[in-house]
Design goal:
The chain is α/β, with parallel strands linked by helices. The protein has two domains: 9-136, 3-Layer(aba) Sandwich (Rossmann fold), CATH 3.40.50; 142-416, no CATH class. It is 37% helix and 17% strand. The protein has helices at residues 18-27, 41-47, 62-70, 93-103, 122-127, 142-145, 153-158, 174-180, 192-214, 220-231, 240-247, 251-263, 292-298, 304-309, 313-329, 376-384; strands spanning 30-34, 55-58, 81-85, 109-114, 132-136, 166-167, 267-270, 286-289, 337-342, 348-355, 358-364, 390-395, 399-404, 407-411. The strands form three sheets. Strands 6-13-14-12-11-10-9 form a seven-stranded mixed beta sheet, with helices on both faces. A five-stranded parallel beta sheet has the order 2-3-4-1-5, covered by helices on one side. Strand 9 and strand 10 form a beta hairpin. Helix 10 (220-231) packs across helix 13 and helix 11 (240-247) crosses helix 12. The longest helix is centred in the middle third of the chain and has 23 residues, at 192-214. The protein is globular and about 65 Å long. The protein starts with 17 loop residues before the first helix and ends in a 7-residue tail after the last strand.
Length: 418
């Protein structure tokens, strides 16, 4: 169980993904819930409706591992509602899950959880093809930390409905938020020093345990070096040749390590948006980390002052917005898709949100009140894509301001329901 919560129901911080999880388990025999270690998967499953009443089995337990190898069906004998946690440690269990579902297709319900992207694991995709749906739990948003309800902002803007102009309550300082981080286990820690120690333990456990469960890595020190080099490239287009040069690790090895970081849910490679075929566009993906505080830690930025003074501060703020947008995207059915857009001539927007045929562009600016000049990229995107519902300029101030017919400037905390 996540150390940020006690066993008391009243101490559980509701997660915005919970309703989607509830709908998924009602409609599908198998739900795969993935996410990085310590994002709160076990806590969610054991405290949220309806799974809090289900039988819970974790393969962190040696006895459960032994039974899973010898008599897997015995783990759920007498029940038809089962959570199997850390399932990546025992992928052989999936054939038994498949048999149980096929034998009782309308009765059995499983949630498979693990600190790996099960969608990218071949054993899962092959064993449960057509039977499983996939959800991803991310670190907490600011809104979840403050017990705010899920905001309807993105649904409104996708429909072409923009928030009214107003001055909102005092906005949370995004640099302080990045310094504190968004993993549940960080919530109760009082100082930058204690949070740095937490991240040290997190990285060590990831390298020495989680990574070894998935793949044989010849040099953990090389892997750590690649992580540190990539941390300095948050929000940037991934150039594997440059990463190989700066880390002194071969390019094929960098490619493999990137895949492992994605499989273990620590990074996302954001694809380019390319609906308009008449433009020459940049097509390589951009890199974002699961928690901007992890990127800051790996990049040697261990407190608020060092983050604020760094050249990476803008990219870390962009990573913060990506994290919140991705959490919100996961609450849509089907999931809202995230992209970025950049032309060969340098026109760009940080994010493009696509849901069916509806699209919205998002630009992120750190520092100062919103200006018309900050909307240049949004204007170019809307000119190229007149069918888009509109554009959002995310800033660090307090004001919601209309910047054009289809563009609105909003404080970053609007993504948190503030």
């Amino acid at each position: 169980m996540n150390t940020s919560h006690s066993g008391k129901e009243s101490d559980f911080l509701p997660r915005w993904l919970a309703p989607a999880l509830g709908r998924a388990v009602a409609d599908h025999p198998v739900v795969a819930l993935t996410g990085a270690r310590q994002v709160g998967k076990s806590t969610l499953l054991q405290h949220a409706e309806p799974t809090k009443h289900w039988k819970y089995v974790t393969f962190d337990n040696a006895d459960a591992m032994k039974q899973g190898e010898r008599d897997p069906a015995g783990l759920w004998a007498g029940t038809d509602r089962v959570i199997l946690d850390e399932v990546q440690r025992l992928p052989g269990i999936l054939s038994a899950v498949k048999r149980s579902v096929d034998e009782r297709p309308r009765k059995m319900r499983f949630v498979l959880s693990g600190s790996a992207n099960l969608l990218l694991m071949r054993q899962v995709s092959e064993s449960l093809a057509g039977r499983a749906v996939y959800l991803t739990l991310l670190p907490m948003t600011l809104g979840e930390m403050h017990r705010k309800p899920l905001p309807g902002l993105l649904e409104a803007v996708l429909e072409g409905r923009f928030p009214k102009e107003e001055r909102l309550a005092a906005a949370d300082d995004p640099i302080a938020a990045i310094s504190k981080g968004f993993m549940p286990g960080l919530l109760a820690l009082p100082s930058a020093e204690s949070r740095t120690r937490w991240w040290e333990g997190y990285a060590a456990t990831y390298l020495e345990r989680d990574l070894r469960q998935l793949s044989q890595v010849e040099s953990l020190s090389d892997y750590r070096t690649v992580m540190e080099v990539l941390a300095l490239r948050a929000g940037q287009v991934v150039n594997q040749t440059e990463v190989a040069r700066d880390s002194r690790v071969s390019q094929p090895t960098v490619h493999r390590y990137l895949n492992l970081l994605e499989t273990t849910c620590l990074i996302d490679r954001l694809p380019a948006f390319a609906r308009n075929r008449t433009r020459r566009l940049i097509k390589a993906p951009k890199l974002h980390w699961v928690d901007p505080a992890l990127a800051a830690y790996l990049g040697g930025l261990h407190d608020e002052a060092s983050i604020k003074a760094s050249r990476e501060v803008g990219a870390l703020f962009e990573n913060l917005i990506f994290q919140h947008l991705k959490v919100l995207a996961g609450t849509f059915t089907p999931k809202l898709r995230l992209y970025y857009w950049r032309t060969m001539k340098g026109k760009e927007v940080d994010f493009v949100l696509e849901w069916g045929r509806k699209i919205v562009a998002v630009e992120v600016k750190l520092g100062g009140p919103p200006r018309y000049a900050d909307c240049e990229g949004l204007g170019s995107f809307l000119e190229d894509h007149p069918e888009a519902s509109g554009g959002i300029l995310i800033h660090t101030g307090k004001d919601a301001v209309r910047m054009g017919t289809k563009i609105v400037a909003l404080p970053w905390t609007a993504l948190a329901g503030a």
